[in-house]
Each structure stands twice: as structure tokens, then as C-alpha cells.
Fold this sequence. Notes:
Number of strands: 15
Structural class: alpha/beta
Strand content: 15-25%
Radius of gyration: 24 Å
Helix content: 10-25%
Distance between the termini: 55 Å
Number of helices: 9
Shape: elongated
Amino acid sequence: MPTGSGIDVLPDEVLHHILGFLEAHESVRTCVLARRWRHLWKSATGLRVLAGNGEFLGSLEKVCNFVDSLLRHCPASPLHTCEIRFTSFGHWILTLCEGGESETRLLRHVNTWFWRVMASVSCQVQVLRLRACCTDLVPGDDDPSLALDKRSVDSRHLTRLELYGIEVNRRFLDFSNCPLLEHLEFRNCLFDYDSRLRICAPSLVSLLLDYIWGLTPKLESMPSLVKAVVTTEDCFDSCTVANCHCEFCDNSYSIGDDTGSNGSVLLKGLSEAKDLALISGPDAYTFKVDLRWCPIFSKLKILLLNEYWCLPDDFRALVCILEHSPVLEKLTLEISCEKHRQQTERKGTLRPMEGSAAILEHLKIIEEDL
């Protein structure tokens, strides 16, 4: 290739952007290409540390030393994206324990990296992804979770936060000091089993809660919310009273009475969304609680529900949420054939509700996804 052609003619700012898409160790290696490249990696707009399963460096000690050194030397310019992914995090924790070494060392390292990037004035990170597991096992069992320090996230630049396999706490879930945070994702994360945590993120545009363990978190007001996907299949919400006949259990007919919203866990916080996917477990306990104080979804046009919203002979939950969605245009019912066959053996009672015919006024599409 002739001198002065190809990638070498690109300005430094463009090369910084390109290097931001490489994994961190590959970006650093470019320093040996030529004198001009010696320090370009320090100004890469992305920092991606992907470790585990032979992906990077191999040993835990090498990984920790590398990342510590990396964060000391960069970024030399504002960082757009930071991704820290440990696909063997749980394996490393268990290995440390079996070898008589404290697992707190790794937990301390990862916490230090996370908060250093989050709090650094020079970083100004906008997109932050932290993944500390590679399976969908229950955190705390065979695949230990990463417990984040009990601190509030305070960032004037963060727009997207994605967490996978993380144990969160009450203080961490307060994002009121993140005015630009619009996208928030929790996958396979561990919430508290004893008390209900609250997610405060008033600027959110999109929310994902998937494979959540512990008690379902309570959502505070999100007036700018457009799209949300919420799965409660793995949550531990339940009525603790034996043979209970309260309004939240199967024997109750008190649904959709709209008597207030203080008791709402999820639906009140989701009430401004235009696009919703609500995936429930077999007992649908959390959503039954919320339907007792069902808000009006005045902007909702697209709704996806799974089979537990339309049990045979008991469509109260489905009818209730449809009656509270006056401008709904598309409804998708995601039904598992095997689960559906099992449900046909269950018995329920259908209670007619006034105004049921009105739910079809704006509905244009109904899909059944088997």
C-alpha cells in the first residue's frame, strides 16, 4: 500500500472512534504498529474488557493487573462506551473459595472499576454495560452474583446502563441524579428477598426487567417512558397467609376497581408507556396486586402479554388491562402450546365486566404467537 493511503490518512479523531470498537487488549496492541499509533489507544472512545472462558488473558491475576493499569492510563479524552464482561465470573469466585483465597478481592476489583468509570470527570461515559455471569442460574447459587457497593449513581452524562448478573441494593437504584439516563436494563439480577426495592429513574425512555430474582422492584413515576419489557416469572412475590381469601389471591373478584395507586408495584410506573410487554409467572401474583389499582394507560398502543394473562375460563386480568388501555391498536398474546394444554385443565370463573365491548374501539390487530 503506498505511503499516505489507507487507514493512515484518517484523522486521529476517526481512529479513536474505530479503536473504541475493539476489545481493550486488541486496542492496546496497536501501539506497536507505528510511532503515530503509540498513544492513540489511550483516546479510544470505547473501553471493552471481555474476560473469561479463554477470551482474554486467561488468568484472573493477569486480568486484574491489566484493567488496573488500563484505567490508570486512559482515557485521555471523553469515553463514550464502557463494557466490562466477565463470562466466568462465577467460576472464578468458586475457584477462589476452593483454593482458600478470598473472593472479596475480585469483587473489590470489579466494584473499583465500575465506580471509577462512573465517577470519573474525564471519562464522561454515556453507555455502561456490566456483565458478571454467563448463565441464567439463580444468582447466589451455582453462579454467584456481583454485589455492587451501596452507593447512588451520580452521572450527568450517562444515557444507557445495562446490568447482567448483578446484585443491586436500595441506594444504587436511585438514578435521580442521572438526568440523561434514558435506557435501563436489568437481566438476571438479584434484588432483595426481604424488602421491596424502588427504582427511581424519572428520565427513562425504555426499561427492561428480565430474569429478576427476589421481590419485584417497585417502579416510581417515569413520565417519559415509551417502551418497557417486564418479566416477573422468576420473582418471589407471594401471599404469605395460608388459605388467604384477600383481593390479591385466586379467590378474589376485586380487580380493576381503580381505588387508588399507592399499592401499585409495576403498572403505575409503566402507565405512560406506548409499547409494553408484560410477562407473568403462573400465579401472576404481582400483576394481580397491581390490577387492584389499575391505572389508565392513556398512551398505550402496542401490548404483548403471555398466556398467564388469559387463563381458561378466567379472563378478568386480560379484560381489566384492555379496559384501561383506551387507545390500544395492537395486542399480541404469546401462548406456549404445552402450557396452554396444561391450563385447560384448570378451572376459573369468568366475571362479566361493564363496558367490555368498548375495548375493541381502537384495536386494529390481534395476534396469537404460539
